[in-house]
Each structure stands twice: as structure tokens, then as C-alpha cells.
Amino acid sequence: MSGELKILEKGTIFSSLAPNDLKRLGSLMETRDIQEGETLATRGEKATQVFILASGTLLIAMDDGKTAVMETPGDFIGMELLSSKGEYINTVISLTRGEVLAIKRDDFIDLIQEDSALAETIMDQWHSFLTETLPFVEKEASPDTEYHY
Amino acid sequence: MYGIEAIAKYNGWAISAVGVSIVFTGLVLLSLSISRIHKVLDLWDNRNNIQLFKKKVVKDPKPELPPFTPNEKASARQFRLLISTMDDPFSLQRLLHLAKISGLERPHASLDHLLKARIIEPDHQGHHLFNSEAFDRFVS
User: What is the pLDDT of residue A132?
Assistant: First the structure.
């Protein structure tokens, strides 16, 4: 568990969470090995999990041909995947072997719904992350990716 | 002369006031010191984490990649051929698709290698660019 928390602390999205919130989030995660070429999520399919990269490289293929590459431990692959209809809006492919921390989508939504302060912190950090590192995602994907609290 | 009269005559009130002040000041300082002891102990316990005393480590954000193997060079050349058929900037997911249908060996890992070598770089608009200088450095 401590290794998973360290990965959460490394990421932009979760590094500002209080230790208790990190532990709550950590308790929902399960470590999953990923293989080279494995598809973690497919656009249009029912969204069941969100992911936090622990090691390896992930390619996020968007609807319009745009692509994001996630390679920093702690990178969060979630909000941009999940539409309010509960479907993945992007396809996520692993370029290398590695590990992700997977959280069930419903557990993640329950967590942020029961704690509005936590939800606000995560969403603020998420928007900062998008603006700084993936500005093209924020402009086009935000209207469809907001959760209904 | 005795009692109150003597006290007043020889500055007794002033002396006692000074004495009381000195004692109270001492007690206040002592209590403040005791109340801060836990902070001092915390500092001592975490002395290795204090930035002021830490050695500054200059981190290299991207470690230099080892030279490409002959197979990796061949793969990079094949990717360059595919990229030459695409727009500039090009779609990375489209490139991966082309690499897969062209039968390139381990297209995912090869693409990752090119990204790490900065032979393929993001344009920060969702597409990617081919970096000829990096290609020449690693492959030619």
C-alpha cells in the first residue's frame, strides 16, 4: 500500500490531497500488470475503471486522431475517459510492459460524491493538469466529461 | 520605623515590583520554551528532510538513452518511411495503426523507443512531429 501511496503523491492530480484522503483513495486501488500492446480501455465501451500510471507508457487515442502519451508515474487516466453516460471516450493502449493502479469507476465516483471538498480538489488539479500538459484535451473534451454530482 | 512606613521609605514597593516582574518574566519564558519543545524535537527527528541542510541534487529529467541496436535502427527507419507518407504533424495513433498493419516487429515498443529518444515529439496540439536531428543522432 505504501508504494501505491507514493505513486499517488508523485502525480499532479493527487499530490495535494490530505494524507487521510490519499489513504482512502489507496484503499480502493488494485495493482494491475499491463503488457506491451494491451488495450486497457476502448472508446465506446462501458467505462468500468479509471487508471493511475505506476510504470510504463500509455497511449491515449482520441476520437479526432489526436493522441496523448502518458509516461510519468502518478499520471491519471480517468476523467477524460469517462463520459457522463458511463462510456470510455478514448482508447488507451499500453506501449510497454508496466503497471497501473486501477480504481473501479463506481467506487471513484462514490468517493468524490461523498466528499465535496475532495472532489473539488481533484477536479481543480485535473483541470490544471490538462491546461499545463494537454491543453488540446481540455478545450475539446471538457463539456462532455463533467460528472454530475 | 517599622512596617509599611519602612517599606515605603526604602523603595520596598518598587523593589518588590521589580522582583515580581523578573520572576514572572522568567516563568513566561520557561513556559514558552517548554511549549515549543515538541517543535524542536520534530525538527531533530526530521533533520534529514530539511531543505536547508539537504544536498542539492541536479536531476536529469530524461536519462540519455543507450545507442540503438541494429534492430532498433532498422525499426526506426521503417517508422520514418511510414511517417514520410503522412501529414506533418501526424497522428500518432494513425502511425501505430500503420505500423501494425505493415507488420513491423513489436510496433508498440518501437514507438515507445522513438518517443523516449525524442525522434518523435509532441506538437502539444495532439499531434506529433518527426525530429530529423534526433533521428540522425541515434540512427544514422
Answer: 79
Test the A interface: residue of B75, B90, B93 with most A CBs within 10 Å: B93
Please state whether the predicted TM-score (pTM) of the whole model is above 0.80. Answer: no
Chain segment A37-61, per-residue pLDDT in tens: 999 999 888 888 889 899 999 999 9
Whether B19 maps to a domain, the answer reads yes
Cα A81 to Cα A44, A144, B54, B103, B112, distances in angstroms: 10, 10, 40, 29, 22
| Model-level ipTM above the cut of 0.85 | no
What is the 3-state composition of chain A as percent helix, strand, coil, each rounded to the nearest 5? 40, 30, 35
Q: Count how many domains chain B has.
A: 2
Contact: A95, B122; criterion CB under 8 Å: no
The reply to whether B62 falls in a domain is no
pLDDT beneath 50, residues of chain A: 139-149
Residue of A39, A43, A69 to mutate, testing the B interface (most B Cβ within 10 Å of its Cβ): A69
